[in-house]
Design goal:
With about 120 residues, the protein is α+β, with helices and mostly antiparallel strands. The protein has one domain: 2-Layer Sandwich (YaeB-like fold). Helix content is about 35%, strand content about 30%. The protein contains three helices and five strands. It has a five-stranded mixed beta sheet. The longest helix is centred in the last third of the chain and has 19 residues. The model has no long low-confidence stretch (mean pLDDT about 95).
Length: about 120
């Protein structure tokens, strides 16, 4: 079983929770269900539910009507999954700047964890 946590900035902002709070109820429900499935399958969750992007960043994939939503995440310390943020995707691929953003959050998370500023 994997433990899912949401990334929180050093200012206390929880980006994925803010994304969920602003999303439609159906989008929230689908993500919550998919997060439960991810907690069981971890890195073995296949497409179309999840996919590997780059630099150890992965995506959870949700489609609602013609809209495509993504939650970016990474694995850390044995069985932890950190969800960085969510996006509404308007292109065929996840925009590189969104992946770069998730990589920056991953580096920040790991640095703050190493300093003891974050507890798992």
């Amino acid at each position: 079983m994997y433990i899912i946590k949401y990334y929180v900035t050093d200012r206390g902002d929880c980006l994925f929770q803010s994304f969920l709070d602003g999303a439609q109820a159906k989008v929230r429900a689908k993500f919550i269900k998919l997060l439960d499935i991810l907690s069981v399958y971890g890195p073995n969750l296949p497409r179309p539910y999840a996919d590997m992007l780059r630099d150890d960043i992965r995506e959870l994939r949700i489609r609602l009507s013609t809209n495509r939503y993504r939650a970016l995440y990474f694995f850390t310390h044995r069985n932890y999954i950190i969800i960085t943020h969510g996006i509404l995707k308007n292109t065929d691929e996840v925009p590189p700047n969104e992946i770069d953003r998730a990589v920056r959050y991953k580096i920040d998370f790991e640095n703050r964890l190493a300093k003891g500023e974050i507890k798992l």
